[in-house]
Design goal:
binds ligand BES; eight-stranded mixed β-sheet; seven-stranded mixed β-sheet; about 25% strand; binds manganese (II) ion; alpha/beta; binds zinc ion; about 500 residues; single chain
Length: about 500
């Protein structure tokens, strides 16, 4: 979609559709009032008849004649003005865009960005709008060669500035929104690709392709022979049952001072998780192609950083392997030595994410990181605890929790903390190694993080369990969400431009 920022008056500007707001009780937004005057009370009447609702996220369309300047008017319920938070804005916006899509509108004026939102400025409102527009227009086509007929009708979204001084804000928001949306689309494409095409080798190639477009990026691919030399026994134990070799890929984006410590992102890249010898049940196993969505979110966020030319140093690391039950696969009871020197008893080969991550987390010490965030579809227990709303957050640093909460609120891609208390550590006790790779039935999300915490003591670290939010499981919506690219990008933006965001 194309996003246009211009100074123009709403009554002079043509569009297939204008999106306006309605607050409780029957309070039209400024642009809605303008249209109400222009169309002789049409919006007021729709409210009085109860046709247009002010309930947050409810959208209603009024139709004008096709010769009129504005063929459709989408009125979006925004709830109570005092409670119009960033979260509410996200909801209103996606409802408005969905409705505009239903009207088959190609050319949309989005006037919702004029609405005052608590703690959110104009550039951010535009950024959120562009992200929502791109999300609505996204289509997976990679293995659907004949797709394209049912392309999204949306072509242009216009933001109207009342004064020229607003234009800079609109353009800045647009730039941020486009970059993050592009990272999200990349993450969705990678997530949606099936396991036979999206292999560890494919992910490494995608990283290399990214480097071709962006000179500030350096990409290295560590092969299995090198992993062996580095002592990455845990990572190698996962790929050993597969015909696909593991790849550890590093992407270094240098946009800051040469000596500035980087923010490091580490992604779980299991391109397919059968469970290994601890084989998963067959039901919905196809969804385990999404087990590389942590890695996809790292690649997507690095892409966003490149497109933004963000003025800081960021390192992305993706630990890629396929978890298969081949003849060389790990057995339950096997003991492996990690790069850190600690030994692990593999009691369940389906707890493979933590095995690839622990070696990657030791490896990133060499970057002398400012912070490390790992992102992983790590536990089914996280879906039980938090559902499909936030990602699970476990962290050894309070300011980092605050920063991630704030980035979650602004981006609409929220996270929620679970405790990482010492009390849980003993669940990993083993008689045969420094630790077991599973912690029993209870608090599975936390014991997985406890496992990782033993490899992250040297830096400020956060773990995001994205098992519940990385993809939609069923129906027309089935597919990768592109999350948490918005959260990670917003976090990095807040670090790069501390006074503004
Ligand atoms: N990739 C899965 C986690 C998962 C399962 C995410 C279902 C989303 C939906 C992970 O590798 C896994 O299998 N975890 C096990 C851990 C257990 C063996 C301790 C789980 O959650 O069952
Ligand atoms: Mn598994
Ligand atoms: Zn897995």
């Amino acid at each position: 979609m194309e996003y246009i920022a211009k100074t123009a008056a709403l009554d002079k500007e043509t569009a297939n559709c204008v999106i306006v707001g309605l607050f409780k009780p029957r309070q039209l937004s400024p642009s809605a009032r303008k249209l109400d005057t222009l169309y002789r009370g049409k919006l007021t009447r729709a409210c009085q008849r109860g046709h247009a609702k002010a309930t947050l996220g409810q959208a209603t369309t009024l139709h004008n004649s096709s010769r009129s300047k504005h063929e459709h008017i989408v009125i979006v319920g925004c709830g109570e003005a005092e409670r119009f938070t960033t979260h509410a804005f996200h909801k209103a916006l996606s409802a408005g865009i969905q409705e505009a899509k239903k009207c088959n509108a190609a050319n949309v004026i989005n006037s919702l960005v004029e609405l005052p939102v608590k703690d959110t400025d104009l550039p951010t409102r535009v950024q959120i709008s562009v992200m929502a527009g791109e999300a609505a227009a996204y289509r997976y086509t990679h293995t659907l060669p004949k797709a394209g007929k049912d392309r999204s009708p949306l072509k242009k979204m216009k933001f109207l500035a009342s004064q020229a001084s607003e234009l800079d804000s609109l353009r800045q928001g647009r730039k941020f929104g486009k970059a993050i949306a592009s990272g999200m689309a990349f993450a969705k494409d990678l997530g949606n690709l099936p396991g036979n095409l999206c292999t560890p080798t494919y992910l490494a190639e995608q990283a290399r392709a990214l480097k071709k477009e962006h000179p500030k990026l350096q990409v290295r691919v560590i092969e299995e022979a090198q992993m062996k030399k580095l002592g990455m026994g845990a990572l190698l134990s996962v790929s050993s049952g597969s015909a696909q070799p593991a790849k550890l890929v590093t992407l270094e984006y240098r946009g800051g001072a040469p000596d500035a410590r980087p923010s490091v992102l580490v992604g779980k890249g299991i391109t397919f998780d059968t469970g290994g010898i601890s084989l998963k049940p067959g039901n919905a196993m196809d969804e385990m192609k999404f087990d590389m969505c942590g890695a996809a979110s790292v690649l997507g966020t690095i892409k966003a950083c490149c497109e933004l030319e963000i003025p800081m140093n960021v390192v992305g690391v993706v630990a890629c392997a396929e978890n298969m039950p081949g003849g060389r696969a790990s057995r339950p009871g096997d003991v492996v030595t990690t790069m850190s020197g600690q030994t692990v008893e593999i009691l369940n080969t389906d707890a493979e994410g933590r095995l690839v991550l622990c070696d990657a987390l030791t490896y990133v010490e060499k970057f002398d990181p400012e912070t490390v965030i790992d992102i992983a579809t790590l536990t089914g227990a996280c879906v039980v605890a938090l559902g499909n709303v936030p990602s699970g957050l476990m962290c050894n640093d309070e300011p980092l929790v605050e920063d991630l909460y704030k980035a979650g609120d602004v981006s609409g891609d929220r996270t929620w903390r679970l405790p990482l208390w010492e009390d849980y550590q003993s669940q990993l006790d083993s008689n045969f190694a420094d630790m077991a790779n599973i912690g029993g039935r209870w608090a599975g999300t936390i014991t997985a993080a406890c496992f990782l915490s033993r490899f992250t003591e040297k830096y400020r670290w956060a773990h995001l369990d994205i098992a519940g939010i990385a993809w939609h499981s069923s129906g027309k919506q089935k597919g990768a969400t592109g999350r948490p690219v918005p959260l990670l990008s917003q976090y990095l933006i807040s670090q790069a431009y501390p006074q503004e965001h």
